[in-house]
Amino acid sequence: MSDYQSNTASERQQGFSDMKKLLPYLKEYKKECILAPAFKMSEAILELFVPLVVAAMIDHGMGNRSRGYLVGMSLVLLLLAAVGLGVSVTAQYFAAKAAVGFATKLRYALFSHLQSFSYTEIDKMGASTMITRMTLDITQAQNGVNMVLRLLLRSPFVVLGAMVMAFTIDPWSASLFVAVIFGLSAVVFLIMNFHIPMMKQIQQKVDQLTQAARENLTGVRVIRAFVKEREEIGRFNARNEQLLLAQEKTGKVSALLNPVTYVIVNLAIIFLIRTGAIQIDRGVLSQGEVVALYNYMTQILVELIKFANLTVTINKALASGNRIVSALSLEPSMQYPGSAAGSGGASTFTPASEGIAGEAQPAVSFEAVSLRYQGAGEESLQDISFTAQSNEVIGIIGGTGCGKTSLVNLIPRFYDATEGKVRLFGKDVKNYTKEQLEQLVAVVPQKAVLFAGTIADNLKWGKKDATREEMLSALESAQALEVAQAKGGLEGEVEQGGRNFSGGQKQRLTIARALIAKRPILILDDSSSALDMATDKKLRQALTQLSPRPVTFIVSQRTNAIMDADKILVMDNGRIVASGKHEELLQSCEIYREIYESQQKTA
Q: What total number of domains does the chain contain?
């Protein structure tokens, strides 16, 4: 158990260090961070006076049979309750305002930071991890801030205050309070010391169970195809059973908290009532004072239980804070020159406006480029060299995993080449600002992605101020006009992920979104794979009629999609093994000829 304790202590210390790094996000809520605990302390002070009022009612009101005194003290109790309620609600308001504001600013900062990541960092962290940081972890940190502002000072103050008030009534009886506080504190923190590591184990097992469920749901077709339902059900049940056993074990430990603390307090109350009766007989204490001591003992119990729950919340917040800080401290591997937005050039940037375009300069050139993904054992691209002139159509073909997508991902600088240079219009891609690259390159990725909204909303991702005519023209060029009309036109609804569209329809809409931007470089990364041959042919014909005509890269597995290209790059194992026109490659490149002949036979 010593390992558990040392690990927990070190993790807690690291958590406090990380939470300090998040304090700047509370800067704008200094007033709330002061007022919330202050009002909570005021509420605690009011609570500490209640037992004294009750004692006075018993000793003076009931003892002297004074109805007027009882009514007056009852009104005092109501006043304390009303003021206490108002003070408590005010404290809750300030605590919630600070916590929610903190979470809002932190979530915005984290989202902005994640948006600055290159594909390398996204691959490293994983999309699911980033979403967890944005949602669950920030919510846990928010709850931690809220609870700290409300209870971190209040609970210890009530415990110590109750003990002090007990000493003002009877020092001898109050010594019992000291023993009870130390006993309860020892029990609470001993149980929590066992409970917190167990909770972490449970969270790990929940993650494993969630992963198994996610894999089964996303891979349900594969599971059914290979008749693996029973095996997967067995694997899920095994992880579910492990989670159950861990929760039962943790539940048994946490279940000890209430019985043990109540036993200690009730034994103390029994002892207090017994000694109080003796003190009453001796005339040392009054009945009201004994009741007040009993109430203070109950307050101590309640506050220690609250403090135990606060400890759990703080530990969860510290762990979440650690994960948030780790995400914020991960620096993007790509650094861009000064933003063009500041000079007002992001929206009007063109190669010609920068003096980098011209007939002598190729639109895209690769110079001995190699690429190795972070953590990969070997290079994905090796010694890639080629040029693409303005208005040319470049086809890229090869077997699965040969590096086609890796090659085109270097053009918009989704990744940085590990060796060699990638140039756009004669200028190193690393010397462009992020805004300038966005104005130069339009990409239609392999997986068609649409966003919830309307068709017009999705098209305006390509051009924010696009007119209706421009949108209809882009849809027509992408062979998606009929798709839009069938869904109600430009105002047709697009559900999340475009799930109300087929694969081919989504591809055509994403191509339209790229065309409307009218970038000088257009990349179609296997983006017409779901289209039939006739539609694909019409699309390629429409691309040649674009004005202005971009240099177009078409990545495809089908020779029919690239056979009319001005230049075809044939890739194999991360290298360009041949380049040329369709007819030339049929004669000179065996790989290309094999691909072409195999597709002609199956056509």
A: 2
Q: What is the DSSP letter of 150?
A: I
Question: Given pLDDT bands bounded at 50, 70 and 90, which one contains residue 94?
Answer: very high
Residue with tokens 């609570």: 47
End-of-domain residue from the set 267, 294, 328: 328
Question: How far is it, in rounded angstroms, from Cα 371 to Cα 380?
Answer: 6
Q: Are residues 442 and 293 in the same domain?
A: no
pTM given for the model: 0.75
Strands 393-398 and 567-572 turn out to be parallel
42-91 pLDDT, tens digit each = 999 998 888 888 888 888 878 777 888 888 889 999 999 999 999 999 99
Same-domain status, 102 and 236: yes
Q: On the CB side of 468, how many CA atoms lie within 13 Å of its CA?
A: 3
Annotate 153-166 with DSSP letters as a single string: THHHHHHHHHHHHH
Tell whether 324 and 366 lie within a shared domain.
no
380 and 233, same structural domain? no
Q: Strands 364-371 and 381-388: what pairing? A: antiparallel
Instruction: CATH number of the domain at 374, please.
Output: 3.40.50.300
Distance (Å) of CA 266 to CA 55, 262, 294: 20, 6, 10
Q: Which helix (H) or strand (E) holds 264?
A: helix 257-282
- Segments forming the whole domain that contains residue 249: 14-328
Is the pLDDT confidence value at 356 over 70?
no
How does pLDDT run across 559-600, given as a tens digit for each residue? 888 998 999 999 999 999 999 999 999 999 999 999 998 887
Task: Tell me what the pLDDT averaged over the chain comes to.
Answer: 85
Q: Based on the fold, state whether residues 316 and 389 are members of the same structural domain.
A: no
For residue 382, the SS3 value is strand
- Answer for the pair 243, 209: CB distance below 8 angstroms, yes or no: yes
Predicted pLDDT at 342: 40
* CA distance from start to end of the chain: 68
Phi, psi dihedral angles at 539 (to 5 degrees): -60, -45
> Tell me, what's the pLDDT at 15?
54
78 belongs to a structural domain: yes
Say if 453 falls within a structural domain: no
Domain-located, residue 6: no
What average pLDDT does the segment 152-169 reach?
87
Radius of gyration for the chain, computed over Cα atoms and rounded to the nearest angstrom: 35
Residue with tokens 């992605």: 449
Q: Dihedral sign, CA of 203, 103, 334, 384?
A: positive
- Tokens (6 digits) for 160: 């110590």
Higher pLDDT, 447 or 308: 447
Residues 265 and 355 in one domain: no
The rounded distance, in Å, linking the Cα atoms of 250 and 314 is 18
- Sorting pLDDT into bands at 50, 70 and 90, what band is 340? very low
Q: Give residue 500's identity as a one-letter amino acid code.
A: N
483 in a structural domain: no
Same domain, 132 and 157: yes
Instruction: Put the strands of the sheet holding 567-572 in their side by side order.
Output: 441-444, 521-525, 551-555, 393-398, 567-572, 575-580
